[in-house]
Amino acid sequence: MPAQSKPKTLTRLLDLLQAIPRRSSVSAQDLHTRLTERGHAVTIRSVQRDLQMLREHFPLEVNENSKPHSWRWGVEADQGIGGMNPHEALMVALAEKHLRTALPGHMTDSFDTVFEEAHRRLKKIDGPAGMPRWIDKVAVVSPGLMQLAPEVDKGMRRVLSTALLKGEQVEAYYARVSPTTPDRVHSQRYILHPLGMVLRGSITYLIASQGWGRPPGFYALHRFRRARPLGHPVDLPSPEWTLDGWLASGQAQFGMHPDKPPLELSLACSQMMANMLREAPLGPDQEIGSMPDGRRHVQVTVADTWELRWWLQGRSADVQVLAPVALREAIRQSLKQALDIYDGQFVMPFTERFEPD
Fold first, then answer.
1. 146, 205 in Cβ contact below 8 A?
2. What angle is formed at CA 83 by the lines to CA 77 and CA 86, rounded to 5 degrees?
3. CA 320, CA 220: separation in Å to the nearest integer?
4. Where among 251, 273, 304 does a domain terminate?
5. How many domains does the chain have?
6. Is residue 214 part of a domain?
7. Per-residue pLDDT tens over the stretch 151-191
8. Ranges for the WCX domain (predicted)?
9. How far apart are CA 154 and CA 23, in angstroms?
10. How many other C-beta atoms lie within 10 A of the C-beta of residue 183?
């Protein structure tokens, strides 16, 4: 074996071991597909030889009665490759609770092995009888109103996540809700350039552009009706574009436009709200001062987004917008509309909707 091929072979074998499940079984063909998705150029015959070789050194089981033969880890397999200490196991268990819905479809099986290893490790360090298990001592709680996650077709998730990992364009049919006819869903055809995937609350979004020079946008995975890879490489919005940089610029907040300048926000807040903002500021330049009427004045630079406006409306009993004037008027109009509805006066929806497509 040439020396330069040894690292690639080792990486392939490690990926192959990680792709083998513990509870269910998979065929060599399925494992070949997973290795290909991870960028390994390997034949099905090579995968079969690798499995036979690994079987001599690891507790792998093969069901020779199935057609094709299927593979899994044996029941005696314990901590897997490298194992993990209790602190690592606790962090993995916590991450599982948060990331389970965010994992791309074809990655789930591989990570199931890691999650199961963490659970087994934590069981070994459980305390006396009657005490809560380690896994019952961690939880993930949403800070806001938690909505149920919409159903995402597993096949669709697999196609989109594979295209993202391979850097390939996709032809997709995506359903948008029309603001004029919200009871009707319109499916449109797009050629998308997948750039990233973001879990925001209970919804997973594909970050994609529609080609060179077009700004990236959010596409909710549950709204995709059809998608197929085109085999063409994606075009980045710019040579230096990165998902982290894009998110750091505030794009993860709906309504943010790259050409929209930030707001110099001036608020009059209750003492309670001022205390909350002192603990968790709206921005790094936030300043809090006193006002003659006993309230607190908050000055901060923020992005003008729908989420900001949702927050201002939801906190309207404790927060009053002083400036900018246009934002103050938009919030006032929206609150007036809500008051009219509660007073029994039906009005047409406010034209500036604070919600994404």
1. no
2. 115
3. 33
4. 251
5. 4
6. yes
7. 888 889 889 988 998 899 999 999 987 655 555 667 899 99
8. 263-339
9. 19
10. 6
